[in-house]
Structures are given as structure tokens and as C-alpha cells.
Amino acid sequence: MTDFVDKPLLAVLRGERRDPAPMWLMRQAGRYLPEYRALRAEKGGFLDLVYDPPSAAEVTIQPLRRFPLDGAILFSDILIIPYAMGQDLWFETGEGPRLAPKMTEARIEDLKPQLDRLDPIYETVRLVKAQLSPETTFLGFAGSPWTVATYMIAGQGSREQAEARRLAYADPAKMDMILDMIASMTVDYLSGQIEAGVEAVQLFDSWAGSLAPAQFERFVIARNAWIVSELKKRHPTVPIIGFPKGAGGKIGAYVRETGVDAVGIDETVDPVWAHRELPAGLPVQGNLDPLVLIAGGEPMREAAHRLLDALSDRPHIFNLGHGISQDTPIEQVEQLVELVRSRDR
Ligand code: CP3
Would you list the DSSP string of 231-270? Predict the structure, then answer.
């Protein structure tokens, strides 16, 4: 019975304006925190952390012990879906994720789904839920089909997502099948997170910016729209944040055609433009440049105030335009949180 507890972030996701704007930071759990690095070293690696639910729960909560943030985001990764679809997943130190077999070579029928690879994530959600203070909003997430597909196809991060874009032209039927498989698993996965206790979810489409308009329509808009409508059938009241990073001028169409409840904007989007172009009352999340957070001082204060001014007439969730960098000084984050929380509009 926590329904009567005020959760500012959830209220804004449902369309209320709040002063001060609630805030959280993308990638708020991670390497810029010494306590994260210590636990990661103790457990062995990133995936060992993700697959040890008590540790993953601890990492989820670590940033909230330091900063009075309004949201906690589940500690996991968008690549857990390809892993559950049957690809091998590992992280090369200093380089990034690797998936095998690559979908340039394998067929989707060759993969053997291993849905039990999702169970520990739900366990993490339950453990976090039991520890979170009631005014904190608990966010789940998944990658959007196009972004996840770019890793599945190339087997790793790729320049300009060229392998996936090439496959889309060379074998459109295979591309459709990969995207549909990811979308379908993602609906089940997000439903599982919701049933275990998250209160809103974010769809990360980190590579939405690399597509030609017709493909953006099919790979980004249509697939996110499908996920939103399926999820709404099962969980009509749970807000969905869409984050089509790099989508620029296509954000308006994305919002109108996907049915997301809120949209995340990256740091290349002018918040004054976003306010003018996006439907009145639509909650907007973002978009301080993660690099100005590293710089700190007056440039950071100025940028944060400009952002808060630009979005003061609509529901706004203060966030970065992309994930926090690992070399961000903790004092800078403290100053930013203090600035946002103490500001009178
Ligand atoms: O926001 C959060 O704190 C929640 C956890 C979270 C992680 N990854 C943890 C993580 C979330 C939401 C993600 C999303 C994610 N993962 C995206 C989309 C958002 C974005 O940043 O564009 C993408 C593309 C991935 C795939 C991925 N995971 C890459 C490319 C890498 C390696 C690059 C890197 O930053 O190290 C990861 C690893 C990863 N995921 C780390 C964390 C904390 C770093 C792991 C470590 O070395 O400890």
C-alpha cells in the first residue's frame, strides 16, 4: 500500500508539471562511482554483476545513497535480450560488448532461445523494490529493436551501424524477422520487469539517428509503436519513455506515431525547439550535455538553467542527453543535483 506516497518522477511521467523538476541520470550506476568499481572488481566483471541479483540490486541503489535522485534505473544491459535469444555475450576489456554468432552469418532459426537468462533480472527488480524508498520511482528498460539488432548483426558496436544497414538492404526479410523477434521478446521482458516491480520503462533507441527516413519509419517508429501498443494491452497505466537518440527533426513523428508517454531528447536537440515542436503537455526528459557535467562550474550552471527555463512550461524530467561519462567527478554531480533541486522557477 504505497499508492498515496508522492513520487514526483512518476507524476511528471503521467503529465503533471513539478517544481523542482524531478531528475535522474542515464547510466547513473556505473564506473564514475568508486563503490561500483570496487564491487565490479570483486565480482569479476560486468556480466558477473548483472547475473548476481544481490550485487545488481546494490549497484542500482548505489547512486541513490549519494544523491537525492527521483529515479532508480534497473542495473542490467540492453544486450541481455540477444543473450536470451541465444547469442553468446561477453565484454572485451577496454573495447565493449561482443555477441556470437553474428547475424550476418547465422540465421535466426539457428539461435536457441534461453529465456531463463531473463529470470535473474526479475529477481534483481524484486530485491531493489524491497529496498527503495517509497518516493523514488523505479525504472525498467530495454533496448529498441533497431539498436539491439545493430549489435546482434555486427556482433559488436559498429561504425555507423553499417553491417545492419547493409543487411537491411540485402536481405529485408531477414532484417524484418530479427526486428520482430527482438520486439516480441522485449514486450515479454518489459512485462516481466513491470510484474516484478518497476513503475515505468524506457526504450533506448541509441542508434535511431543512423537511418534514412523510410527505414526510420519501419525500424524505429513501427517497431517502437508495436511494443508500446502491446505493452499498453498488458499494463495500461505504466508510462513508457521513448529515447530515439539522434533522431533530430524526426522526433515529432516518433512521438505522434509511437504513442510513447514521454520522450527523451539527446544533447544535440535544442530544448526551446523541442518545446515548440512537441505536443503540449507531453513530458520531455533531458538533455544536459554529459560533457558540460564534466566541465562543471559556471558553464554547467548556465546550461542547466537554460534547459530548465526552456522546458519550464511543460512536464520536464531533468536528465543528461546521454549516459554519464566514467570520468565525471562526483562533486560535479553533487552540484548539479543541488542546483536542480533548489531552483525556484
Ligand atoms: O542507466 C543505467 O545506469 C542502467 C544500466 C544500463 C547499462 N547499459 C549498464 C552498463 C543501461 C540503461 C544500459 C543501456 C545500454 N547498453 C545502451 C543504450 C544506452 C546508450 O548508452 O546508448 C547500449 C548501447 C548498451 C550496450 C553496451 N553496454 C555497451 C556499448 C557497453 C560498453 C561501453 C561502455 O560504456 O562500457 C556496455 C557496458 C555497460 N552497460 C556498462 C554499464 C554500467 C559498463 C560496464 C563496465 O565496464 O562496468
Answer: HHHH-TTS-EEEEETT-GGGHHHHHHHH--SEEE--TTS-
